[in-house]
Amino acid sequence: EDPLANAESAFAAFQDVFGVTKGKRRNHTKGYCIEGEFQPLDAAIRDFSVSPLFTGTSTVIGRVSHKGGNNEASDDKFGHYGLAMEITTPDDDVHIINMNTEHFFPVATPEDFTELMRAKATGKEAVARFSAKSPELRAHKSYHAALDKSLRPYEGATYNSINSFYLVDQTGKKTAIRFSFMPVGEHEIALDPTKDFFLQNMLANLQAGEVAWNMVITIANPGDPVNNPAVPWKGDHKRINAGKFVVTSAMTETDGRCDAINYDPTVLSQGFEPSEDRMLEARSLIYAIGVGKRLSEKE
Ligand code: HEM
């Protein structure tokens, strides 16, 4: 199937599974805007990449969200989240980062993902049939079921790139990476949990101190799968604490500037390149369909 037809089909399946909240994202529907700065940390990363992210302070318009298409998702129950950032570097290069709190993807290819979403739209038995032939989905399910399910706020969660990217140095040499944004300090539940308390909780944590994440970059070992987001990289790796995203303010989507942004993970600054992971192209196509649809639904 061609990539665009697959993207259309995946998008349609999302709408069948989650329904449509007019004018809103079809996945990661509930969320709010955050703004702040991205600051370079360990200069060791500059041996691998010429990205302006690692030489000066950049500005960020970000969005935190609940995974899934439910605009009424509960803040007071454990869930998986997303963290998206549009980073503008000092030389006006734009770099998008878009992650979630899962550790790896449930399937290996965009076509498998569309098939899984279609099965979810069809019903439990269709999902069971898909699962029976998908060792990746079964591994994903059992791994994530075993994770700690205690409630944590957006600012207390670790977000992962899932897909692989390349760093590019000044000679053009490419190094495969994955990365995570890990919370700096303890950001816990500061208020009595209610269905919609996450924005207030972050504002309370901002007032009490710093809300920030470190960008920890994992350098691939030889043989690590770059093109398959369903396979975690195992064993010891070189990790570089390359930068820090410091949040300075948080606000609703209505008050903020994140709502119209297309967080397309293939929009990268100089010094980065997308990997051969085909999920990246699929995400780029699907998010373009999404932003067009939801913006056209606004008055
Ligand atoms: C082929 C696989 C995927 C599909 C089909 C898909 C689908 C979607 C769709 C339809 C949206 C809404 C876009 C919009 O209306 O603007 C979305 C948003 C999002 N996706 Fe994906 N996604 C995929 C993979 C991933 C992966 C691997 C991650 C994390 C690493 C991820 C993280 C997010 C986040 C955080 C958002 C919300 C961004 C924001 O706040 O605007 N997605 N996705």
Q: Over the alpha carbons, how many angstroms does the gyration radius reach?
A: 19 Å
CATH superfamily label: Catalase core domain
Q: Label the CATH architecture.
A: Beta Barrel
Main β-sheet description: 10 strands, antiparallel
The gross shape turns out to be globular
- Topology-level CATH name: Catalase HpII,  Chain A, domain 1
**Oligomeric nature of the chains:** single chain
Domain unit count: 1
CATH class descriptor name: Mainly Beta
Query: What series of H and E elements makes up the topology?
Result: HEEEEHHHEEEHEEEH
> Which distinct ligands sit in these coordinates?
protoporphyrin IX containing FE
Strand content: 25-35%
Number of strands: 10
Overall mean pLDDT stands at: 96
Structural class: alpha+beta
Sequence-ordered SSE layout with sheet pairings:
Elements: H1 3-18, E1 31-40, E2 58-66, E3 81-88, E4 94-100, H2 110-122, H3 124-132, H4 135-145, E5 159-160, E6 165-168, E7 174-183, H5 198-208, E8 211-219, E9 238-251, E10 272-274, H6 278-296
Antiparallel strand pairs: 1-2, 1-9, 2-3, 3-4, 5-7, 6-7, 6-10, 7-8, 8-9
Helix pairs in contact: 1-2, 1-6, 2-3
The protein binds protoporphyrin IX containing FE.
Residues 10-11, 14, 25-28, 31, 63, 65, 82, 84, 98-100, 105, 110, 113, 162-163, 263, 279, 282-283, 286-287, 290-291, 294 line the site of protoporphyrin IX containing FE.
